[in-house]
Design a protein that fits this description.
Residues 340-477 form the Aminoacyl-tRNA synthetase class I anticodon-binding domain. By secondary structure, this protein is mainly α. It has 5 domains: 4-73 and 193-239, 3-Layer(aba) Sandwich (Rossmann fold), CATH 3.40.50.620; 81-192, Glutamyl-tRNA Synthetase, Domain 3 (Glutamyl-tRNA Synthetase, domain 3, Alpha-Beta Complex), CATH 3.90.800.10; 251-324, Glutamyl-trna Synthetase, Domain 2 (Glutamyl-tRNA Synthetase, domain 2, Orthogonal Bundle), CATH 1.10.1160.10; 327-381, Helicase, Ruva Protein, domain 3 (Orthogonal Bundle), CATH 1.10.8.70; 389-483, Arc Repressor Mutant, subunit A (Orthogonal Bundle), CATH 1.10.10. It has 20 helices and 12 strands. The strands form 5 sheets. A 3-stranded parallel beta sheet has the order 1-2-3, covered by helices on one side. Helix 2 (51-64) links the parallel strand 2 and strand 3 (70-74). 35% of the residues are buried. Bound molecules: glutamic acid. Residues 8-10, 19, 42, 196, 210, 214 line the site of glutamic acid.
């Protein structure tokens, strides 16, 4: 049988890392089995669903490279299918109208709580007579529709991740609401458990893979499959992503949506690699750095952990830096052009491309995130750099001013700067002033960049020179020095 899997996000927020990771596992499993991956937007909660969230979800999945084969399907366009299923259940006596008001249900819950019992519906309207129903109708009450759940049922399935899972019907909270209140004879907005099952049946889903937070829904859904006379799919519940204190990662932990990660300068390849490792241990033949296709080739649920997976920023940063350091220069530059344009830096992406490429090569080894190139690149685009405390004290070292004067004179007489002339200017200034070469190097760096640490000095000098900024910066450092003395 061809594997058919789906990701079914609700557009009630941006694409969350947890949903994206579930999408990754579905994608890997689907691709491993040459199956079909389906995107379904679960938008029946019309109060909380928003089209900008749908767009964010779709563009996030695309950005991550999680391409789907069918969809997106929208549940709000499929309401007649859910209504037909509810009607089938009503006709078969497996579902019924319940007229309880929210106040009555609150009261029931309060009494259960007072007795130390778990809250559950007591099925009180299961067997209303037609007269009782008409009396409620006459009061103007609008019933919900509930699906019968027998307390003495035992529900069991073999979970792809967790093995045998067993639930008792009595633990499912009583008969379950499957559609919201609406006048009797009509069917209100159908609810999650019902619509998911109707769609998973209609779309021929063979493997329902979703987060562990849905595990309590699965026994209810299994009962609905039975009631609708459909064969059961496999179910797999993937471990949750946890924050550093072991709680489910939530909005309170700051960044949780894929677009946030994108804005922070993470690469899609690094993020999918990292998400795959969140709960899955790759077999030995796969190194820790892999793309989705390589992971799909060896993916199986045997290696998905049951325990929650702690989100580890250091690991993600390390992976992201590995991808950045190995990326071909032209590709990295395309990313950085967007980052630098976003920062408002002034350059011509076409005409300045050779210069931009040298700059990219200079910065590449120290990038952890793409956005690091904003601070690291600033001094190459903007004149002048601000001097940090270390740079100022470096410029105040004895001999620094003479070194800079020597370098400036050398530059003014030299014309073009090449790696060779740069080195010989440094050597010459060092000798002429009678200082250690380290002092010359640190002083030159302080003058050019406003800091005493940074990437390769000769390359930095050459790149600044190509923008004609080295001489003004030497002059400025000299004038700073003379002003402070
Ligand atoms: N709309 C649900 C969610 O976003 C889907 C759960 C499922 O996969 O069944 O969590």
């Amino acid at each position: 049988m061809t594997v058919r899997v789906r990701i079914a996000p609700s557009p009630t927020g941006n694409l969350h890392i947890g949903t994206a990771r579930t999408a990754v596992f579905n994608w890997l499993y689907g691709r491993h089995h040459q199956g079909t991956f389906i995107l379904r937007i679960e938008d029946t909660d019309q109060e909380r669903s928003r089209s900008d969230y749908t767009e964010n979800i779709i563009s996030g999945l695309k950005w991550l490279g999680l391409d789907w084969d069918e969809g997106p399907f929208f549940q709000t366009q499929r309401l007649e299918h859910y209504e037909a299923a509810v009607q089938t259940l009503l006709d078969a006596g497996l579902a019924y109208y319940c007229y309880c008001t929210p106040a009555e249900l609150d009261d029931l819950r309060a009494r259960q709580k007072a007795k130390g019992q778990a809250p559950r519906y007591d099925n009180r309207h299961r067997n209303l007579t037609p007269e009782q129903q008409s009396a409620f109708d006459a009061e103007g009450r609008e019933p919900v529709i509930r699906f019968k759940i027998e307390d003495d049922r035992q529900i069991q399935w073999t979970d792809l991740v967790r093995g045998t899972v067993t639930w008792k019907g009595a633990d499912l909270g009583g008969d379950m609401v499957i559609s919201r209140a609406a006048p009797r004879g009509t069917i209100g907005i159908p609810l999650y458990n019902l619509v998911v099952v109707v769609d998973d049946i209609a779309m021929g889903i063979t493997d329902v893979i979703r987060g562990e937070d849905h595990i309590g829904n699965t026994p209810k859904q299994i009962l609905l499959y039975e009631a609708l006379g459909a064969p059961l799919p496999n179910f797999g519940h993937t471990p949750l992503i946890l924050n550093t204190s072991g709680q489910k990662l939530s909005k309170r932990d700051g960044v949780t949506s894929i677009s946030d990660f994108q804005e922070m300068g993470y690469l899609a390849e690094a993020l999918t690699n990292y998400m795959t490792l969140l709960g899955w241990s790759p077999p030995e033949e796969l190194s820790e750095i892999f793309n989705l296709s390589a992971a799909a080739a060896v993916f199986s649920f045997d290696r998905v952990n049951k325990a929650g997976a702690k989100f580890d920023w250091d690991k993600l940063n390390w992976l992201n830096s590995q991808y950045l350091h190995q990326m071909p220069l032209p590709q990295l530059l395309d990313h950085l052009i967007r980052v630098w344009q976003g920062a408002g830096y002034d350059f011509d992406p076409t005409g300045d491309r050779p210069w931009l490429e040298s700059l990219t090569a200079l910065l590449q080894p120290s990038l952890v995130k793409l956005t690091d190139a904003i601070a690291q690149g600033r001094l190459f685009f903007n004149e002048p750099p601000s001097m940090d405390g270390e740079a100022i004290s470096q410029l105040n070292q004895s001999g620094s001013d003479e070194v800079l004067t020597q370098l400036l004179h050398g530059r003014q007489s030299e014309g073009q700067l090449t790696p060779e002339t740069a080195k010989s200017l440094i050597n010459h200034a060092t000798k002429a002033v009678g200082v250690k070469k380290g002092l010359t190097m640190r002083t030159l760096r302080a003058a050019l960049t406003g800091a005493i640490h940074g990437p390769d000095l000769i390359e930095t000098w050459l790149i600044l020179h190509q923008r004609r900024w080295d001489i003004p910066r030497l002059e400025r450092a000299i004038s700073l020095y003379s002003n402070s003395n």
